[in-house]
Amino acid sequence: MSAIEIGPPSCRLKTVFFWHYDITLEKLLSVLSSLNGCSSMYIRGNHFKLDDHPNFKPLADIETDDTRLVKQRSSKWFEIRQTAKVTGSSIYAALGLDGLQKMQDHFDQVVCHVPPKQRLTEVQAFLDYGKKHEIYAVATLVGKILPSLYPGLDYYEEGCKAIQYEEQNFMVVSTDGSLRSENGTNDICGVEIKCPVKQMHNEVPVRYLLQCMCEMEVLQVDKLLYICWRPDITSVFEIRRNDDLFLKVLDILLSIYGNEKPKRPTKLPESIGQLRAAEVQMNCKKAFSVANFRPSQT
């Protein structure tokens, strides 16, 4: 793999204020990594070869029955996802939190096997942007965040994992990655990465909170790092697991999609409004900001 830049040079901030801010932050993170005994892991500057970093553990492209080791966006990964009624990324629409029409579209696709509607050009462009720039977020996590704030942990790429109901895959969840200790034998934390085109996330968005809850559930970890990458800044939030919220969501999903002959919804579930207002939004606000990271200047 060629050198990965933590932030593209064309997007670096040039003002004197932010230049001094970046220098101070860089020094602070460097000192923290030294105090943690991780000085050699900390990347000073903007680019490095990610594959050469000891904290980065990519998935190998191999045949395996362990779904956590199946590379995301591979043909087998897509096949596994198609066995489920819900995925982590579709849970918001599947519940009806995105409105009745999108809930019905999801039902038609997974129950009636209607081909999915073509995405709007702008929506597809946003998704492509996120996929392209996700590697920058991983580089920031591995080279800056882990040595300074989460010493002793390595970043492992993840495949997917299923939640079963009546011996069938009901939900398939694909976490971007996990942080592990003890040579990868102990899962400590999930990792979810978003690379928005237009606006930095100042808190965890409502539409992604339940996806993160599902990821913590399948990994059986108590927390997850939500990383929002933009060319000029990376924000990191720590989300805590909430089993009660997850079980409420699972009950609603099973009532819609878990029957032998599911019925197409004609109205939103009665509990959805309360779930969004009282549960999801509250947990978004509970997620606390760990730190903001800017690309260091060279």
What keywords describe this structure?
298 residues; alpha/beta; seven-stranded mixed sheet; 8 helices; 39% helix; globular; Restrct_endonuc-II-like; NF-kappa-B_Signaling_Reg; YqaJ viral recombinase domain-containing protein; PDDEXK-like_dom_sf
How would you characterize the overall build of this protein?
This protein is an alpha/beta fold. It has one domain: Lambda Exonuclease, Chain A (Alpha-Beta Complex), CATH 3.90.320.10. The chain has eight helices and twelve strands. The protein has helices at 16-35, 75-81, 91-95, 100-110, 121-149, 206-219, 243-257, 272-286; strands at 4-5, 47-48, 56-57, 86-87, 154-157, 161-165, 168-173, 177-181, 186-194, 223-230, 233-240, 288-293. Helix 6 (206-219) packs across helix 7 (243-257). The longest helix is centred in the middle third of the chain and has 29 residues, at 121-149. The chain is globular, with a radius of gyration of 20 Å. The two termini are 22 Å apart. 35% of the residues are buried. The model is unreliable at 9-20 (pLDDT under 50).
Which regions contain 5 or more consecutive residues with pLDDT less than 50? 9-20
Number of domains: 1
**How large is the radius of gyration?**
20 Å
First-to-last CA distance: 22 Å
